[in-house]
Amino acid sequence: xxxxxxxxxxxxxxxKSLTSKLKKLAPNAEIKIGCQSYCGPGRHKAFVFxxxxxISATNEDELMIKIAQNLK
Length: 72
Description:
Layout: E1 3-6, H1 15-25, E2 30-33, H2 39-42, E3 46-50, E4 53-57, H3 60-71
Parallel strand pairs: 1-2
Antiparallel strand pairs: 1-3, 3-4
């Protein structure tokens, strides 16, 4: 089962839109929201942890492309 971890503290992450997109991409995945202790990169990049592996990009659209590639 896929598990996503997203941060609700980092400035670059829009939790509401990212959660919605992740649910569409992987409806059966578990999404956990909370601090991920990834503050340095989280100030400048959108990121998500997929099964404890960080994936980051300059914006949310690029991040979704990387996530889709990683899930294949």
